[in-house]
Amino acid sequence: MVVGSAVETLSSEQAWELLSTRQLGRIATSVGDQPEIFPINFYAADGKIVFRSAAGAKLAEIAVNNRLAFEADETDDDGGWSVIAKGHARILVSVRDIEAADQLPLRSWVPTLKYDYVEITVDEISARRFTFGPEPDRYGNQ
Amino acid sequence: MVVGSAVETLSSEQAWELLSTRQLGRIATSVGDQPEIFPINFYAADGKIVFRSAAGAKLAEIAVNNRLAFEADETDDDGGWSVIAKGHARILVSVRDIEAADQLPLRSWVPTLKYDYVEITVDEISARRFTFGPEPDRYGNQ
């Protein structure tokens, strides 16, 4: 019984296209072998993922270790997709970068007057589309 | 202008209750300062989060560093919630544990005959409910 066909690996072009349909993602950070995960609203294009962050845990983590993993997905009862990216983050500091980021359709989960923009330069991206099908029988009774 | 009221910190009881309404979450792992993030289907109850994993990157990461972060969320146009947990993972090996896990309503993203159950013992859990409201004006023009 072939069951692997329920998962399809997508191209990086398809990965970026899927990201353009979503605003909600998550980043994973790591400091001292302790992983952390944070939900973000993001904008993805041109090899970069941009999000806003108020001062706090996310920015502190990134200041110590700027290596990030990112994930976004969408599912319904039949299946869905997931995109995973890895890259390096930097906090935007130049007026030009910040003014450009101000034009992006980004919103923060926490309304705040004080925030920074974080830009992830993506080094690796992968995407899978999958269909929830009948389970294979673990004990071999086909 | 008070804007912080759009975010509400929930109790750990509420966090577990929200987790019982979702199947899709993500775990973050970390090995050698490189964070990774993986989507999972999970079952959460009694201070534990259980998921299935085929042999591969997730299990390899957990074998090296069993500290995990976990996240699940739900959003619509008006707002949503996010639950974040941190804990330690172990792969279930006893027949009794595996038989108990076989009874859980868990499915894998990738249909496979060979998989392990991973159980996260949660040390910390937090949850926030938020409402997307009008943006505060960053430049103070109220």
TrEMBL record, chains A, B:
Pfam families named among the record's database cross-references: Pyridox_ox_2 (PF12900)
InterPro entries per UniProt: Pyridox_Oxase-rel, Split_barrel_FMN-bd
Domain of life: Bacteria
The protein's name in its UniProt record: Pyridoxamine 5'-phosphate oxidase family protein
